[in-house]
Design goal:
By secondary structure, this protein is of the alpha/beta class. The chain has a single domain, classed as NAD(P)-binding Rossmann-like Domain (Rossmann fold, 3-Layer(aba) Sandwich), CATH 3.40.50. It has helices at 13-24, 57-64, 141-153, 179-186, 207-219, 236-247, 283-289, 297-300, 302-311, 317-320, 322-326, 335-343; strands spanning 4-8, 28-33, 48-51, 69-72, 93-97, 160-165, 167-169, 191-194, 204-206, 224-228, 252-255. The strands form three sheets. A seven-stranded parallel sheet has the order 3-2-1-4-5-6-10, with helices on both faces.
Length: 344
């Protein structure tokens, strides 16, 4: 039985969800973070806090030593595996967050290397953990995460579970993609164009589901890589319908073919709009951990919506969520272009 857990980078969206799940299971939780981001009010008191710089390898090794469970939300490249090498035999279970974008397309490319529809990775449907991942030793998010995975698995005897989530959603998110629909509801938009006729699928991951996988991996140590996504994979249309249903907003979805507004148009292009499906299998998690899906995107999105509404109630969304602004979210809301296309 798990008695204690250390969550490295635990003040973020995955860490806070994991803290809540572990506390509910009676686990003593310590959240390690740099101290630049305050914890949600409901976690202040129930968890212990440890000021820690992830880059200080020696400090991380000592903080993790003897823990039943360590969750690392901050590991990025192969060097970040090094603090755990001395802990073989002194650590119950290590869980590290990777990403679904490590998967290599049959056309030889990967998500953050794609420049457009033509070179977007072509992946099996669904993708399993046995499918190939990026091997290119280059800079970039996906290659570095893939190199991290290899470095962790190269540590003989390390009880590590690597989780590969998709588009993450949940409370405490710095860049909640569902803002694409939430803001339209707040603005009273009655028509919403969607390219690919709303059929595009890009795997989503509720933080609550990731947290459940973290808890299970803590209770069942092993050496494994697991996908960590919602089931079933929602279409863009279903995501929009779920958000609007939660908000009680009524709107007509205009289902358009890809490129309806021209090659340079962003009308109808959502954060989940990809030219080919990105769907991940959860069969391995069911078989290896006894995981039972917590629910679809629609069943799990409510807390994220409510959290975001509260967050923007007294602040401009660009100031409250600078990560969204950097992501280019301003371009999501070109209503003039939408109306021109739909009325044209």
């Amino acid at each position: 039985m798990l008695k204690n857990a250390l969550l490295v980078g635990g003040s973020g969206q995955v860490g806070t969800a994991a803290a809540r799940a572990l506390l509910a299971a009676g686990v003593e939780v310590t959240i390690a973070h740099r101290g630049t981001r305050p914890l949600p009010a409901d976690l202040v008191g129930p968890v212990r806090e440890l000021t820690l710089d992830r880059a200080d390898a020696d400090a991380l090794t000592e903080a993790a030593r003897g823990r039943d469970l360590v969750l690392d939300c901050m590991a990025f490249g192969p060097a970040d595996a090094e603090p755990y090498a001395p802990l073989v035999g002194e650590l119950g279970s290590l869980v590290v967050i990777s990403t679904a974008s490590v998967y290599l397309g049959t056309n030889g490319t990967w998500m953050d290397a794609a420049t457009g529809d033509d070179d977007f990775p072509r992946l099996p449907v669904p993708v399993t953990e046995h499918d190939p991942i990026v091997t290119a030793e280059v800079e970039g998010y996906s290659p570095q995460k893939a190199a991290l995975e290899r470095a962790l698995l190269a540590v003989d005897g390390l009880p590590v579970t690597i989780l590969r989530p998709g588009a993450i959603h949940g409370p405490d998110s710095p860049a909640l993609r569902e803002w694409y629909f939430i803001k339209r509801a707040l603005d009273g938009r009655s028509r919403v164009p969607l390219i690919d006729r709303g059929e595009s699928r890009f795997a989503t991951s509720a933080t609550a589901a990731i947290a459940e996988l973290v808890r299970l991996a803590g209770e069942h140590p092993g050496r494994r890589v697991l996908n960590a996504v919602d089931e079933p994979a929602a279409t863009v249309l279903q995501i929009g319908q779920a958000v609007f249903a939660h908000l009680g907003h009524s709107a007509e979805f205009e289902l358009l073919p890809r490129g309806a507004g021209g090659p340079e148009s962003g009308v109808g292009q959502t954060p989940w709009s990809v030219p080919v499906p990105v769907e991940l299998s959860m069969q391995a998690a069911r078989e290896q951990l006894g995981y039972e899906p917590l629910g679809s995107h629609r069943a799990t999105i409510g807390p994220a919506i409510e959290w975001m509404l509260e967050a923007v109630a007294e602040a401009d969304w660009r100031e409250r969520f600078p990560g969204l602004a950097r992501y280019g979210a301003e371009a999501w809301f070109d209503y003039a272009a939408e109306d021109a296309l739909l009325d044209g």
